[in-house]
Amino acid sequence: MRHSHALRIGPVGFRVGSTWRAPITALRGLYAGYPTLKAEVPDLTVRLYPERPWRRWLRPSVAIGGDFWLPDAAPLPLAQGLLAAEMGMNLQVALGWRRHLLLHCSAVERDGRVLLMSGASGSGKSTLATLLALAGWRFLGDEFAFVALDDGAIHPFPRAASLKNEAVAAVRAAGGMVGPVLAGTPKGTIGYWRPPETAISRMTDAAPPKLLLFPRFGEPERVETMAPSETFVRLTQASTNYVTLGQTGFSALTRLVQTVPALAIGYPDSAAGLALVERLWSAA
Amino acid sequence: MTDPVYAVDPPSVRLAVPLDALIAVYHRPSGATHLLAAPSPELLDALADGPADAASLRDRLAAHYDLNGEDDAVGAIAARMEELVAAGLAWRA
Predict the structure, then answer these.
(1) Distance from CA of A239 to the nearest CA of B (A)
(2) Are the beta carbons of B1 and B38 closer than 8 angstroms?
(3) Which one of A87, A95, A108, A238 has the lowest number of neighbouring Cβ atoms within 10 Å?
(4) Where do the domains of chain B lie?
């Protein structure tokens, strides 16, 4: 492809190629300082290309492709090329990665142990992880937790956090710098928060999980203990490669739910959420 | 009409991990994961001795468990076995 950038984020080597220069320039800016791939073969490849040949110039429309592919991935306008690159990277990881059990979780670390937060879009898991990182926790990722298949440790995947709508203001209010903000995307307004330097320099340092939370933003404060079997079912649904990994994934997931306590929590706002997380972490 | 006789794969093809009241079972031939509650895991184990109908299964379970309180143990076992057949963990021999 005409333009490309190859970089490493945690265990994953990506090559993102694009027909247009702009998405790659934006990607290089957002991920400046991340290790780049030299002679290494990338693990996953993302391709951004025109939906039709003339759509390279005429109302440019970015289709997302790569080694793995979904038939219904809708193209995006060129102005949202960075989002297309990010979605492409997510898609390739979700569909193609086999070396870890992937959980749709955000993850932060403190004192050598990891806090996992799982939830659907809008649950607040990205915002909480970002705010905790601003409060001194090490940011491991806001999208996927990479669970090691041999020892269950959580490997960092410190992509830029994707903050949606009100979360942009919440992170800025806490002193966080939110970089490119894309308005009018299919997911609303999206702002990218670049992880702190320690998250990048320590992206190969894995740590064992200590606590798993299922947060729900905008609810009265509550804490409910989840049974391991319920946690197991929810995490099979939150994993993009559990079925593909077969018995290896089963063993990794049963070990996680047997050894890590899980709580469902509700919180009305970010401040209450942060205080609740700190309290539960101390008690865990 | 004779009562159905049930059979299962040997225990070595299943990986069972107790989580709480439920047991997670990975079935290697299908690659499927199941969450089972008692007495389904016990029925699978009891069939390791060979195919059996519900009445024989009750006798096998009675050798290890106290079934005195069960008025219709055979009916309950037949219902659980049909669920295991539907789940792909057992079949009618």
Answers:
(1) 14
(2) no
(3) A95
(4) 5-92
Name residue, tokens 């990479």: A146
For A247, name the nearest residue in chain B, comparing CA atoms only: B26
Report the residue from B17, B21, B33 with minimal CB separation from A236: B33
Tokens of A59: 């109302």
Residue-by-residue pLDDT tens, chain A, 284 positions: 789 999 999 999 999 999 999 999 999 999 999 999 988 899 999 999 887 777 777 777 788 887 777 766 678 888 888 889 999 999 999 999 999 999 999 999 999 999 999 998 888 899 999 999 999 999 999 999 999 999 999 999 999 998 988 889 989 998 888 988 888 888 889 999 999 999 999 999 999 999 999 999 999 999 999 999 999 999 999 999 999 999 999 999 999 999 999 999 999 999 999 999 999 999 99
Q: Are B19 and A251 inside 8 Å of each other by CB?
A: no
The answer to whether A273 and A267 are in contact (CB under 8 A) is yes
Unique residue bearing structure tokens 């946690």: A231
Q: Flag if A232 and B24 touch (Cβ within 8 Å).
A: yes
Residue A129: helix, strand or coil by DSSP? helix
Helix axis angle for B73-87 and B54-62, nearest 10°, is 110
Nearest to B28 among A232, A247, A251 (CB): A247
- A229 contacts B33? CB cut-off 8 A: no
Q: What pLDDT shows up at residue B1?
A: 60
CA distance linking residue A65 with residue A48, whole number of Å: 6
Residue A267 sits at the vertex; the CA angle it makes with A262 and A273, to the nearest 5 degrees, is 80
- Substitution target from A254, A255, A258, A260 for chain B, most B beta carbons within 10 A: A254
Instruction: Give the span between the Cα atoms of B6 and B25, in whole angstroms.
Output: 19
pLDDT at A238: 95
Alpha helices for A148-246 (secondary structure H): 166-173, 197-201, 228-238, 242-245
Single-letter residue type at A30? L
- Between B19, B26, B35, which is nearest A258 by CB? B19
